[in-house]
Amino acid sequence: MEWGMKNRMAQIIKPDGKCFFLPIDHGYFLGPTSRLERPGDTIKPILSYADALFVTRGVLRGAIDPQKSKPVILRVSGGSSVIGEDLANEEVTTSVEEAIRLNAAAVGMSIFVGSKYEKQTIVNLGRLVDECERYGIPVMAVTAVGKELAKRDARYLSLCSRIAAEMGARVVKTYWCEDFDRVTGGCPVPIVIAGGPKCKTELEVFSFVYDGIQKGAIGVNLGRNVWQHKHPVAMMKALHAVIHRKATPKEADEIFQVTKSKSTSQ
């Protein structure tokens, strides 16, 4: 691995080998998502607990302070909206030159394995990797499933993750599932866990993150379960402890409750 690639990977993955990515790229297909209407204001109190920010170029330029940012993973795919015919119909929407101009540490894009647009998105990934390797920029592949959430099982996600790695992705973002070690065990590059839909309880979030890390994930790319929560700072602090301090779900819940109590008493 060349120096530039090593340096960029070191920006997003900390010395302990773990990472906490904060995604605020949801607007590229969802529009002004609840509590993300003003993304700069939303992340201001929680950004310090993140290791990197997953964001589109428009929000990066328009809402993120360049003097107070974390390393950037730039979302470079899109083309379909939540009200369109098929979310899987994506293309690469942002050039590698733009990623360099924006000083991105990495770029990220989705693949939709098993969808009508499977080949298109996988070929997109291969071509993006070709360009990014030329400049030493790591690519994070997102194993998206669109509206077909029932596909989140170990057999399907291990297939998606392995294909992403085979295409040259340096990091793979995928969903947690039962038997998650089957997913990490079949993928030769680091895996980060996607947050997915908002969970019902805090302990549910801490538990799947803890389990995923115990079974081989290096961290998470978690958004809605943090910034849509009534107490986002408490969530970030607790999750940071699970990822970087090996806290158990019970210990994380205690951190959450203490932080929540302090914030509500002020």
Please describe the structure with a list of short key phrases separated by commas or semicolons.
alpha/beta; eight-stranded parallel barrel; two-stranded antiparallel ribbon; TIM Barrel
Please tell me about this protein's structure:
It is a single chain. This protein has about 270 residues and is an alpha/beta fold. It has a single domain, classed as Alpha-Beta Barrel (TIM Barrel), CATH 3.20.20. The chain is built from twelve helices and ten strands. α6 links the parallel β6 and β7. The mean pLDDT is about 95.
Helix tally equals 12
The span between the termini is: 49 Å
The general outline is globular
CATH architectural grouping: Alpha-Beta Barrel
Which structural class matches the secondary elements? alpha/beta
Fold topology:
Blueprint: H1 3-12, E1 19-23, H2 27-30, H3 39-43, E2 52-55, H4 57-63, E3 72-75, E4 77-78, E5 91-92, H5 96-101, E6 106-111, H6 118-135, E7 139-143, H7 154-166, E8 171-175, H8 181-185, E9 191-194, H9 202-214, E10 219-221, H10 224-227, H11 232-244, H12 249-265
Parallel strand pairs: 1-2, 1-10, 2-3, 3-6, 6-7, 7-8, 8-9, 9-10
Antiparallel strand pairs: 4-5
